[in-house]
Fold these 2 entries.
Entry 1:
Amino acid sequence: MADIRRRIAQACARSGREVSSVTLIGVTKTVPPERLREAIAAGLTVFGENRVQEAAAKIRALHALRPAPPATIRWHLVGTLQRNKACQAVELFDLIHSVDSLAVAEAVARQARRLGKCQSALVQVNVTGEAGQHGVRPEEAEALAEAVAAMPGLALWGFMTIGPLGAAPETTRAAFRRLRQIRDDAVARHPAWRDAGRELSMGMSDDFEIAVEEGATMVRVGRALFGERW
Ligand SMILES: *Cc1c(COP(=O)(O)O)cnc(C)c1O
């Protein structure tokens, strides 16, 4: 963990950014609750899961351990959300990174209103256009963001992408730069988003330093913190 924090700090220094402008999200899919407790003890406070069911079981198990996790722990859904899991997702997660269609946005908003919650969300964009990747097309990102921002029950926090997997660094950098440009253009046209709608969730174990250099405000790191998944 100290090593990852140091690498984030170095990437911030290279790009003239404050370390405090980047949130490290520990992605804990397949990682057992005991390991999360160790990570919490080491100072990690934000956790990302990619499946609603797994997260629900893990959060329960973590709370059953003693000492219980501090109230300051935040849970983020980083994986794809199926509409029939929207209710549980709204109950569990502080931030949903994966709003990738109007239908998903509406399902989340409806459940949030029902639960009396304002659900924070990011619009997921498929910047690379890779087939099989989730996210709206870049040219649709702003329209979906507008819909999210206007929906009672939802709060737009910004944008998220998954970089091209196994790509050359320049390709990865171009993808992250593209998402930042989408965000910058959208914020320029929507001054109300300047304070709360400008988060950029991008960067994973293999590319989080490039993402930080390109403006990521949240990096989602799994394997580099918790080891390979099997
Ligand atoms: C698994 C996952 C991550 C973390 O990936 P690592 O390569 O383990 O760092 C980040 N974001 C999403 C959406 C994921 O599914």
Entry 2:
Amino acid sequence: MKTIPMLDLRQEYEHMKTDIDLAVQRCFDHQHWIFGPEVRAFENAFANYLGVKHCIGVSSGTEALVLALRAQAILRTGKEYFTPDDQIITTPFTFTATGDAIIRSGATPVFVDIDEQTFNIDTQEVAAYIAEHGSRVAGILPVHLFGQAADMSNLMAIARENGSFVLEDVAQACGADRCGIKTGSIGDAGAFSFFPSKNLGCCGDGGMVSTCDDATAELVRMLLKHGGRDKYNVVHIGYNARIDTLQAGILLAKLPHLDGFNERRRQIAGLYSEGLQDLTAAGLTVPAVDPETYHIYHQYTVRTPRRDALKTCLSEQGVESMVYYPFPLHEMEVFKGRMVTQGALPKAKKAAAEVLSLPIEPLQHEDDTRRVTHAIRNFFKS
Ligand SMILES: *Cc1c(COP(=O)(O)O)cnc(C)c1O
């Protein structure tokens, strides 16, 4: 019995082999490994895709977050880093990097609870925190989790009223939108990841900062190459966080495939939901889609109190599945003494205990999608 994987990067490579091989060969021909022509070409193509003024390629999604936050610190405080008195509100139900980046920028992460339907940050919790502690809140960092946009219109309104910035964590939502506006083009800046398993992935690490603000763009460009316009005469405490020419070339070749692959993910998600939605009474919840969003299913994530048993049962039938994420950030050692939490965050905790993500390889055959659906149905029938 063939195992159904979460993703099949080899199959995706075979699908676009001609484009990728050509892009790689071009780089070997010109040998401009650092800031080669593909870097600016990809930045421009991606800015055009998103509808933003600036895109700045960086070495990973994590560095995209850190650099965007450092730029905000410099712009807003005139200092290199935020201080622990500066707070940034985010979700506890995300990848560690979201919260880590806040600490690395010098600020304190404030974790507020999530919306149970979408797993995204709960706007009302954000509003409640700001109503009481608004003067401390420098920014809001929503994550478009699993490929579905957070409630950006309300978050932007709350942020604007409080004079806070909004940085979008778009690592899982490349190509998603809200009311027709692409994620990563709504806030003051966006941070993308091109980690191989993301919807647009490279062959190693890579990331991007998107923004319409000239000052933010200029600062990020300085920070990613040691902190100066001139590498040998530096202004800010910087990083070596460039994107490789090779990765930019590969991403440039893969970008035209992104929308089609996102559509395929949506079709697979549609089949799953159709085949599973009547299991609600048995204890399985399929993803809820906010009608204002174009969900691109970086993950197709169901929830059930019998999560661990379901995972074991699927594995026995050759179906891979993954838990994103088993621990909310506020329960991790690294955030102890370095965070503020608004209450006990019960919804995030419950989600971490109940979620399970299913295989959603864009090139996955319909028969495989049905096999996964059958395996789950059988589990809940027994
Ligand atoms: C993947 C991811 C990141 C980090 O991106 P890297 O490129 O791996 O550094 C940040 N936030 C979220 C939500 C992610 O899924």
